[in-house]
Design goal:
- A hairpin with a 2-residue loop joins strand 4 and strand 5.
- This protein is about 60% helix and about 10% strand.
- By secondary structure, the protein is α+β, with helices and mostly antiparallel strands.
- Helix 24 runs parallel beside helix 26.
- The strands form 2 sheets. Strands 1, 4, 5, 6, 7, 8, 9, 10 and 11 form a 9-stranded antiparallel beta sheet that branches. A two-stranded antiparallel ribbon has the order 2-3.
- The N and C termini lie far apart (about 160 Å).
Length: about 950
């Protein structure tokens, strides 16, 4: 059966070939005799190889013969072959000649192609009016010619050869599109995307691009793919977009090749593939695509897949730049600018070329060029004017750069308000980096929009999901706002969004909000998980938080090793707070072995890195001599001054205290006064002391009293107590016991824990000479006492003679002793002595081998009888100097002596300016 069928097929083919051979011979005979129709048929037989071996040159020969005789089909076929270069060299002039011949005979194709030739100047001088005439004739005839409709639409759109009319442009394009013309459908997509013919409508653009893409129209495949890629919110949509773009490239769309290559160069979302990128861009460049040539230059300029080759980059850039490609001109200028030795002349030339074509980046970089101090024509004002020109055209990046110029005063007078205005404009023009700077200004209190809630909401709408830093900054702005309801909730939303995108700082902030239940439900486990992620991502602040948490056992199980690990890791990153904490750990021997040398080294490192706590700590230490670190007065004062500049004017009093210790009263007064003038009201306490004692300034009890009173009125408990003491002793003011009680009680009201105020009130107003057996047997001899008296005193030439007054003895004990009390775990003695006949007093630490000593003045003695006993009350001023810190001062002293039958009781109350209230009591044998 199969053999029979095959036999029949062979018979039929043989018969067909014999038939075709007969037809060819008959057609050849007629054509040879000059029959134009036969000549056309013969030409087509040669063209198709039908009945004869295919021979297109022979086909052309017979087509010319037929066309010359006026045969219409031959004219159209021959014109098409000339127009497309089909088997013969392309020749638009000859194509036009034959198309026009056919058009004069009302052939639709001839009419259409004649119009196209006039429209584009193919084979004939361009003439839009003639083009419109023929093309309009093509769309007005009985035969539908959709491509002509497209051309007519575009002419109405451009106004070439006819009055511009977008309504008619839309009419003809839509008509062609509905007739399923893929080019018209693509153009309808452009109309809706650009909004120049109809109102912009992205959905409609999508639909028209999709229809054209389904017909495999390459430009539509490209545009539809790009729209999917740019709007993709998941991997599936992104992959579909790339697939469409790839189809366009496979069909020869060179723009699609460049787009796809550019994505494989830079877009991490689709996956970088520099080899494939090079293949696509190189092919587009080989096909003469200017963008492809430019991108090829870029790859050589930056060594992407190919070896970096500046000369090749220049070569490719130059080809495209010479053809007026603005991107190539700009990149060429930037290449010359970034050379090791910039070529400013060529840089300026190519930036200017690109700028003349409206290439925004070129204008911005021209602004940079004029702002380059090494440029011969350096001109900050010109730099500013160029940037402003672009910024005023609503270009976000230029508005941001201009804002920076206003904020820093570069090329223009500093104007924070203008800077803020341009930062806001930059945000609204899709440059979210400006939000980061606005956030910095907001944190400093320099930016406060009238309606923060509305403004921040608008910012949020402008931040793309990819810009997590801007989202994080917006969260900080919400968090620091007290004008927005539920600001913490909004901040938490921003932090969460950025944290999910793996932004470490947002992880830390979101974790803290979860930890403390701020703006979100409290969740300690989840909170510490986020903070740990931030710490493990090398966020220094999070590492310190985790370190402290593990060391203290708060929020996590205590683990000293982990705590040290995180603190050390942050310190290794030179994070100042971590350096300070680690230094403190080594200084105190907490969690690590004590190492003072290492501690101070870290303190210095933290201080030099700007840590305020470290500067204060190390500054105070190196001001004074010690056993662990070399004294460095200049460095210490420098550190403390730096701390004071950070809104800590009280630190200036520490510097003043040092100058007091070395008796440089001028500098001491300067620093106390500076501290007070900068808002540290407590410095008034020390200024009062300086005026009271006449240190540097002329002694003035009234001024001293006024400073003290100002501070006391401000509810500063120590000042109130000292004011009470002045009223009690009548120093700088008339003695007034009622006022003394008043200020003592106010001191207690201001600070009920003020032990000195409690003690003062008790000793001066409640107790009435209560007898207490308080003397202690010390066993010290006169020679030992004299040794102690001179211990640590710098001026040993003074003649110091201990007096017999207040040489005490314990009750019913004949051993000699001096008054002794236990003060801060140190054995302390009070000794009265004379120097060259002047009565003085010393407060001596026997174990510490140090003392406060000085002369007595303003001695007043009152005597009265109580319970048949003589009571003597002595008050005086004690002008002391400390051997341990060189500080000098004045103390008020009250001494009460009660003469009994067998022994004499006494109590000495010392009220210094700065140190604690001291009370000594004991007995003296008659």
């Amino acid at each position: 059966m199969k053999a029979k069928v095959l036999f029949l097929i062979l018979v039929n083919l043989t018969s067909f070939n014999l038939f075709a051979q007969n037809i060819f011979e008959e057609t050849l005979a007629l054509a040879t005799n000059g029959n134009s129709e036969a000549q056309y048929s013969l030409a087509m037989q040669y063209y198709d190889g039908n009945g004869v071996e295919q021979n297109k040159l022979e086909a052309v020969k017979w087509l010319i013969k037929s066309a010359q005789k006026g045969f219409l089909k031959a004219q159209i076929k021959l014109a098409g072959m000339y127009y497309g270069g089909d088997s013969i060299p392309q020749n638009y002039s000859k194509a036009f000649y034959w198309y026009h011949k056919a058009a004069l005979k009302d052939d639709p194709i001839g009419i259409y192609m004649t119009g196209v030739s006039y429209n584009y100047g193919n084979g004939v001088k361009r003439n839009y009016k003639k083009a419109y005439k023929w093309l309009y004739k093509a769309v007005s005839g009985k035969q539908v010619f959709v491509n002509a409709m497209v051309e007519v639409s575009l002419m109405y759109l451009s106004g070439n050869g006819v009055k511009k009319d977008t309504v008619k442009a839309l009419y003809w394009m839509k008509k062609a599109a509905k007739l399923n013309c893929s080019e018209a459908q693509f153009n309808m997509g452009n109309f809706y995307m650009q909004g120049n013919v109809v109102k912009m409508n992205v959905d409609s653009a999508y639909n028209w691009y999709y229809k054209a893409a389904m017909q495999k129209y390459p430009p539509a495949l490209r545009m539809y793919g790009l729209m999917l890629i740019n709007s993709a919110n998941d991997r599936e949509i992104l992959d579909i977009g790339v697939e469409f773009l790839t189809k366009a490239a496979d069909l020869g769309d060179v723009d699609a090749m460049v787009d796809l290559g550019n994505m494989y160069l830079f877009d991490t979302n689709i996956g970088l593939d520099w080899e494939l990128a090079y293949k696509l861009i190189h092919e587009a460049a080989e096909r003469g695509n200017i963008n492809g040539i430019t991108h090829l230059g870029y790859m050589y300029a930056h060594g992407m897949y190919v070896q970096k080759d500046i000369q090749k980059a220049i070569k490719y850039y130059r080809i495209a730049a010479d053809k007026n490609n603005e991107m190539a001109q700009f990149e060429l200028g930037r290449l010359y600018y970034n050379l090791d030795i910039p070529d400013y002349e060529k840089t300026y030339y190519w930036f200017t070329k690109a700028a003349e074509q409206g290439y925004v980046d070129a204008v911005i970089w021209l602004s940079f060029l004029y702002g380059d101090i090494n440029y011969a024509h350096y001109n900050l004002e010109k730099s500013f004017d160029l940037m402003k020109k672009v910024a005023d055209d609503n270009i976000g990046v230029a508005q941001y750069r201009l804002a920076v110029k206003y904020l820093l005063g570069v090329g223009v007078e500093t104007d924070i308000n203008q800077g803020i205005a341009y930062l806001e404009k930059a945000v609204y023009n899709n440059y979210p980096k400006a939000i980061i700077d606005l956030g910095e200004l907001y944190s400093k209190g320099l930016y406060r929009p009238n309606n923060e809630e509305r403004k921040f909401a608008e910012f949020g709408e402008r931040i793309p999901d990819s810009n997590v830093k801007a989202t994080y900054t917006l969260g900080l702005m919400y968090l620091n706002s007290n004008k927005i309801k539920n600001n913490e909730e909004k901040a938490a939303e921003c932090f969460k969004k950025a944290a999910i995108s793996n932004f470490p700082y947002a992880m830390f902030e979101y974790g803290k909000m979860l930890l403390y239940g701020e703006g979100i439900e409290k969740d300690t486990i989840q909170a510490m998980s986020w903070i740990k992620k931030a710490a493990d991502a090398d966020t220094s602040e999070a590492m310190v938080f985790m370190g402290r948490a593990h060391l203290s056992g708060m929020f996590v199980k205590q683990n000293d090793a982990k705590g040290y690990y995180y603190i050390k890791k942050a310190a290794d990153k030179e994070y100042p707070p971590a350096l300070y904490i680690l230094a403190s750990m080594y200084e105190e021997g907490r969690y690590v072995e004590k190492d003072i040398a290492k501690a101070y080294k870290l303190f210095f490192k933290a201080a030099n890195a700007g840590n305020i706590d470290a500067k204060y700590h190390i500054g105070k230490i190196i001001l004074y001599p010690n056993n662990y670190i070399e004294q460095d007065v200049d460095k210490g004062i420098e550190f403390l001054n730096q701390v004071a500049e950070h809104d800590y004017p009280g630190v200036l009093t520490d510097i003043a205290y040092y100058y007091m210790s070395v008796k440089n009263y001028e500098q001491a007064f300067h620093y106390y006064k500076s501290s007070y003038d900068k808002g540290y009201i407590y410095a008034a306490y020390y200024l009062s002391i300086m005026y009271q004692n006449g240190y540097y300034v002329e002694k003035n009890d009234e001024t001293a009293f006024l400073y003290l009173q100002r501070l006391a009125e401000d509810e500063y408990s120590p000042a109130q107590l000292y004011l009470a003491a002045r009223y009690y002793f009548g120093r700088g003011v008339k003695q007034n016991i009622e006022q003394s009680i008043y200020w003592t009680e106010r001191a207690l009201a201001s600070d009920s824990s003020n032990y000195d105020a409690q003690l003062f009130y008790k000793e001066f107003f409640e107790n009435k000479y209560t007898y207490k057996k308080y003397a202690h047997n010390t066993g010290l001899s006169d020679s030992q006492l004299k040794s102690i008296l001179f211990s640590g005193v710098t001026n040993r030439t003074e003649q110091r003679v201990p007096t017999e007054i207040f040489r005490a003895k314990a009750c019913k004990n004949s051993n000699k002793a001096y008054v002794k009390i236990n003060y801060e775990n140190d054995s302390t003695f009070l000794i009265f002595y004379k120097t060259q006949g002047v009565l003085s007093m010393a407060n001596i630490s026997a174990t510490g081998k140090s003392q406060s000593y000085g002369k007595i003045s303003n001695l007043e003695i009152k005597t009265k009888q109580e319970n048949n006993k003589k009571v003597e009350i002595k008050t005086f001023d004690w002008h002391y100097q400390n051997t341990y810190d060189k500080i000098t001062g004045t103390a008020f002293v009250e001494m009460i002596i009660i003469y009994g039958k067998e022994q004499i009781y006494y109590k000495i109350k010392i009220f210094p300016e700065i140190t604690k209230l001291l009370i000594y009591e004991g007995y003296k044998v008659k």
